[in-house]
Write a structure and sequence with these properties.
- The protein is an alpha+beta fold.
- It has a single domain, classed as Cysteine proteinases (Cathepsin B, Chain A), CATH 3.90.70.
- The protein is 24% helix and 28% strand.
- The protein is built from 3 helices and 5 strands.
- It has a 5-stranded antiparallel sheet with strand order 4-3-2-1-5.
- It is globular.
- The two termini are 14 Å apart.
């Protein structure tokens, strides 16, 4: 998740792939999913993850904050940390871990 934070600091939202069973993701608008994409858009001061969750009932409720530790576990267990990074050509990319991770 620390690598995701680097992209967020540069203004690039990150899409992660997760899966979860009933009760595993408190605050989710759907009870479970065999495969779900979330857009990470930021982090709270205490480290929780601010997302845009497309499963939300409306645009007004799309921003959902999840516990970082819970979300990270679901993300790593479901997809081994799969992310989608989409950013404009010539956009600054994080320098840390760039040769080992992206």
């Amino acid at each position: 998740m620390s690598q995701v934070e680097q992209w967020i600091k540069l203004g690039v939202p990150i899409v992660i792939s997760i899966a979860y069973k009933p009760g595993q993701l408190p605050g989710s608008p759907i009870p479970s999913s065999d495969g779900h994409l979330l857009v990470i858009r930021g982090f709270t001061r205490n480290g929780d993850v601010i997302t845009n969750d497309p499963a939300a009932a409306s645009d007004a409720t799309v921003q959902i904050t999840y516990s970082c530790s819970i979300l990270q576990k679901l993300w790593l267990d479901a997809s081994n940390g799969t992310v989608y990074v989409i950013y404009p050509e010539n956009w600054q990319a994080p320098l840390m871990d760039r040769f080992s991770s992206w």
